[in-house]
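note to self — DONT lose this again. spent like an hour looking for the file last time. sequence + predicted structure for the chain T wanted, 104 res
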Amino acid sequence: MNICKYLCHQKPERSFFYKQKQFPVCSRCTGITIGAIFGFIIAMLTQPNLLFVIGFIPLIIDGTTQYYGLRVSNNTLRLVTGLLCGFSMPFVVFKVELIIFNYF
């Protein structure tokens, strides 16, 4: 069973290919996954900082402007905005976790 089909649209025109085989997720989801792995490692070694939330902004702008037909995105831009967003996620999760545990 391919669980990736439930997590990503997997459109061929928005995906990378290696040796004529399509990646299991699109270029943006590839970036999010890679970014989250590195972000998790860095977040474990540093103090969580909400400054990293700005990593979500490029993805939001890229995805929104593409969705409304204001411009056409490309796989490289999707990968980069996905990397930034994915890298930011662990910092936000760790910061929220600290806030919750300090509250109770």
